[in-house]
Specification:
Distance between the termini: 23 Å
Strand content: 15-25%
CATH class of the largest domain: Alpha Beta
Structural class: alpha/beta
Pfam families: GcpE, GcpE_C
Order of helices and strands: EEEHEHEHEHHEHHEHEHEHEHEHEEEH
Number of helices: 13
InterPro entries: Dihydropteroate_synth-like_sf, IspG_bac, IspG_bac-typ, IspG_C, IspG_TIM, NO2/SO3_Rdtase_4Fe4S_sf
Number of domains: 2
Strand order of the largest sheet: 8-7-6-5-4-3-10-9
Pathway: Isoprenoid biosynthesis; isopentenyl diphosphate biosynthesis via DXP pathway; isopentenyl diphosphate from 1-deoxy-D-xylulose 5-phosphate: step 5/6
GO molecular function: 4 iron, 4 sulfur cluster binding; 4-hydroxy-3-methylbut-2-en-1-yl diphosphate synthase activity (ferredoxin); 4-hydroxy-3-methylbut-2-enyl-diphosphate synthase activity (flavodoxin); iron ion binding
Organism: Aquipseudomonas ullengensis
């Protein structure tokens, strides 16, 4: 029930990764990367399908050699999501996956080799309508830039990116996106801010090698949050040493917090204290797990007492305020019914699913009316 995001996004060129628009006025795309052996087709397909269920818009797959390229082709036939092939050094791998239906090529033109090899890859991409992602990383800067700057810096990342951009500009190929990732939040943020003023193409955001589930989530939220608040960013990947599905969940949570994407339940919950009239933490843990399958955007407030409960509940689609002897449920901002602590999660889940179904029906009616 909150208003639209006040963020004014940077205007960028729109490209298409398969059926997914990236840049321009398109929603910020959420993506992840498989961590299975690409040659294990069944495992990789299974992981991509789990990522799709979690809400991924795009998935990247590493293609280190020709055997993996052939496996990529078989994977592509079995999944629905657009796939990005991550390729380094061997331009022939890029040419092969282009034949096999890749939706985007993640390369650095500078490490593909001679000009004729870069041209061959670009012409294949142009012929088949495949965009390119230039991916610059602080951990793999060119040797001359390492020598020039002494260490990775925002300026070094941007200079590296612009070198690769120049390759594509020379070949009159504008359909690309760029990332300038670093594990250091300040370095990455400054690099993206610098680059955003120098090119029109969409930017792929990420804090690379951010860490494990907890620490990586925090670093990513801080870094990407600063950039997204500036209106910078057209697609995001949260890099976690964790199940890739968690990257999608965290990505959506970041975007939901800034009102840039809506998917599933947006919970507002208090951290709990001795005033609570029910076990807030236990209730939230159970409730989040139970309604994870719901994709309808709803605001649900779960507050343990009457200090902040009524105020938060009135702003949510469904709000629970702890009270004695009974808790109070608000529906669309108005007091609706009282609930005891007995079977509280069961009752809440029922109300949430009912509200979600009503919202789906109402949205369908609006679409039908044109």
């Amino acid at each position: 029930m909150h208003c639209e995001s006040p963020i004014k996004r940077r205007l960028s060129r729109k490209i298409w990764v398969g059926s997914v628009p990236v840049g321009g006025d398109a929603p910020i795309a959420v993506q992840s990367m498989t961590n299975t052996d690409t040659c294990d087709v069944a495992a990789t397909v299974g992981q991509i399908r789990r990522l799709e269920e979690a809400g991924a818009d795009i998935v990247r797959v590493s293609v280190p050699d020709m055997e993996a390229a052939e496996a990529f082709g078989r994977i592509k036939q079995q999944v629905n999501l657009p796939l990005v092939a991550d390729i380094h050094f061997d331009y022939q791998i890029a040419l092969r996956v282009a034949e096999l239906g890749v939706d985007c090529l993640r390369i650095n033109p500078g490490n593909i080799g001679r000009e004729d090899r870069v041209r061959a890859v670009v012409e294949a991409a142009r012929d088949k309508g495949i965009p390119i992602r230039i991916g610059v990383n602080a951990g793999s800067l060119e040797k001359d830039l390492q020598k020039k700057y002494g260490e990775p810096t925002p300026a070094a990342l941007v200079e590296s990116a612009l070198r690769h951009v120049e390759h594509l500009d020379r070949l009159n190929f504008p359909d690309f996106k760029v990332s300038v990732k670093a594990s250091d939040v300040f370095m990455a943020v400054e690099a993206y801010r610098l680059l955003a003023t120098q090119i029109e193409q969409p930017l792929h955001l990420g804090i690379t090698e951010a860490g494990g589930l907890r620490s990586g989530t925090v670093k990513s939220a801080v870094g990407l949050g600063m950039l997204l608040m500036d209106g910078i960013g057209d697609t995001i990947r949260i890099s976690l040493a964790a199940d890739p599905v968690e990257e999608i969940k965290v990505g959506y949570d970041i975007l939901k917090s800034l009102r840039l994407r809506s998917r599933g339940i947006n919970f507002i919950a208090c951290p709990s204290c001795s005033r609570q009239n029910f076990d807030v933490v236990k209730t939230m843990n159970e409730l989040e797990a139970r309604v994870e399958d719901l994709l309808v955007p709803l605001d649900v407030a779960v507050i343990g007492c009457v200090v902040n409960g009524p105020g938060e509940a009135k702003e949510a689609h469904i709000g629970l305020t702890g009270g004695s002897p009974n808790n109070l449920i608000y529906i669309d901002g108005k007091p609706a019914q009282k609930l005891t602590n007995e079977n509280l999660v069961d009752q809440l889940e029922k109300l949430i699913r009912q509200k979600a179904a009503e919202k789906v029906e109402a949205d369908a009616a609006v679409i039908a009316r044109g």
